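Recall that a protein's primary structure is simply its ordered list of amino acids. Everything else, from secondary elements to tertiary packing, is in principle encoded there. The following example makes that idea concrete.
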Amino acid sequence: MKYVVALAISFSPFISRAVDLPFETESDRLPSAKFNGNVLFTHANILTVTKGNVNDGDLLILNGKIAKIGRGIKAPDGVTTVDLKGKFLMPGIVDTHSHRGLDGVNEGGDSVTPESAVRYFVNPESKNMWQSVASGHTSALLLHGSANAIGGESVVVKYKYRHPVRELIVPDAPRMVKFALGENVTQKGDDTSRRYPKSRMGVESVYRRAFAAAKDYKDRIAKGEKVTRDLRLEALADILDRKIWVQCHSYRSDEMLMMVRLSQEYGFKIGAMQHALEAYKIAPEMAKAGVGAGMFADLWGYKIEAYDAMPWNAWICWKAGVLVSINTDGTGGTTALNLDAAKVMRYGGVPENEALKMITINPATELGIDKRTGSLEVGKDGDVSIWDGHPFSVYSRPAMTVIEGEAYFVRRDAFGVDAVSTIKNSPGRFRYQESPRTPRVGKTFALVNGTVYPVTGAPIKGGTVVVQDGKILAVGRDVKIPSDASVIDIGGKSVYPGFIDAGANIGLNEISGIAQTNDSSEFGEYQPDLNARTALWPESVYYGTARMNGITNSICRPLSGVIAGQAAFIQHDGLTVEEIGVGNKAALVVNFPTVITYKDLAQDFTCCAVDGWNTIGNAWLDGRVSPHLHDQDMAGAVVAETELPARIKELDAYFDKAKEYLAGPRAPRNESYEAMEPYVRRQKVVLLRVRNAASIRAAVDFAKRNRLKVVLSGAADAWKEASLLARERIPVIIEPAGRVALGANTTTTDWDPYDTPYVAAGILAKAGVVFAFESADNSASMNLANRAGQSCAYGLKPEDAIRALTINAATIFGQDKLRGSIEPGKVADLIVVDGDPLEMASQVQMEFIGGKPVNLANKFTALRDKYSVRR
């Protein structure tokens, strides 16, 4: 019997009477399709990785194995046929570094613990394992943590969510052990630690002493001596005998080279140097030694070890002949590793298929499972991921994930956004460029022969932008160019306003792991007179890396306490604090107390009772915050909807005292209350940092009660209250989906639909809420536009994404008369892009801040140019 299934599945969300919002339960995660290991996919764009591409192709899986690839394949009797017309089919993504589905990762009491094993802590019921298949992943190495020089034995798995553990473990995969180098092992961030080693010298000695003991143990057994069995020494001996492969957590090039030489000296096999952030510095040595690298595409700057990481790492290593894979170090959330592979094309021009190998066959090789997965070949496991749109485009999303011929994920459109989403079958043209040129212009210049996107008006094809004395003089198709103007022909490229990151802290925080470089926190709960502009560091490297990808402005803000202080609107070019901080005291930052109401708990119960479980036990009814909400700094209370939590009463009281002071003689002078004046008088915005729905409702009431002009920041649950926010005309700043590593894109609650972080922006736009995007991180600011673009595959219109990055952000912080669009009289913050600025393939070719051309060279390009010439 033959079944024909069209993979264009749309679900009407189950609407709870209590909450009237889409939600997701365990039963919703069960795939709607069941193949039992036998399925025929037809009319797909097949990316085989090792055997070329097949357009309008078919792929047959029988008994969990790939049986045929080609065109015109007929399904045997009883085999389901799935029509993939217009979709892309590729090998399932293989992640060489993951912690998903592990209930424990570190055994840190000793520096050497290879006798421990993570396989005993694999939890196939873990939601984050399902989030992996929802991201197109099929296989991964689940690793021990990096607290030890020699950690526990890791395990290679297939992400068979909710199946017995024995079915997850790949039976013929090599055994793996986690080695680690650097700060996590030396524990330099912990002043109380007395565990050896405390230095990189000590780390090497741990390995040598361990190997010496293992060799002695082996020799005594070989001589027939009677020895007491030692599981630790047995494991170390197996490493020396290459029965166990090494996967080594590493950052700096010096320690990595030490490990490469150690492996050559002792003869053990390294599957990959994991993270390998400075691998580009020793790429020739790694290639010659045959040591692979499993790395982040561009995660950097979060500690001193990661300060020299850069996005050209993969390209330099690949060019030198190193086997490169891109991974996540994932712990939870959906993740877009496919787009991290696209970054390898963006930074260096690696060919498409070579980039695709870095998330498929290359990691499979580093894990020793390339004979069964990592490419689409007859005889290999039927591990495939299916995509709406080209997997290297931001306008794509996973549609189905199949492991050994069985579906583990089928997209469920809980929000009903698929019909209005932007999907593209091409990521655009990737081009390699050494460094964009910096044009030489005078005070007056014109950009001609381009497509101008004013944002507040229709695009102008063949348009011109005239700039004079740092301001936009004229915009249009037939504008008069002053006779003394320098003319720059941009050859059909696109001109946009510079992008604005509505929360990045560039210039205020440098390296999060080093306290001395961070100035966003201060003692005290109520400090409104603190001014972020005061502490801006003009030499921060993040100005340059953000500029490289079109981020010309950002918000820098204090973050601690209840009233943290005043944010600054900054431009990413200048030599002094005053030149950079163009918008002084732009907003008052308030960490609004977290609230969870009994009403919310009742709604939670209504949602979750569908599957026979509830979450009331997860919310503590003694005034502390529910542990599953991941909220902001200030804990609130579980209260009735009409009851005002104590912390909000305190905040109200502070505003009342400030108003009383400002209305009086103001003696003695109080600097804290003086700082409140523009905010209590509605001259400037109060930025309320909130997260969950109850806190958002409370924040709206707080704003109305105190007659404040507010914007909500970090409001992950804003989509749940979109109607309220639109009605009250309260803007919102949200972090877009698109994180790849570690916790990636997580939902506020376990019962929010998995794609909520991607859909949220489109819901706000549809409701009429003015919103902007924030990176919430200085080093990640450079990726903001690409991350915003990912929401377009989930209902957000591309033009709304651009507005959120430009005029909306400018409007929120009172800069809209100066910035955020291309209009006469505005500051000339402009970027010239060779394509769609939301796509990975597009690159900024020129940039102007305040009408001055900006040199797009930065820390990354300097490192690239220094190390890419090594042979």
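Residues 1-19, 605-636 have pLDDT under 50 and may be disordered. The first helix runs from residue 127 to 133.
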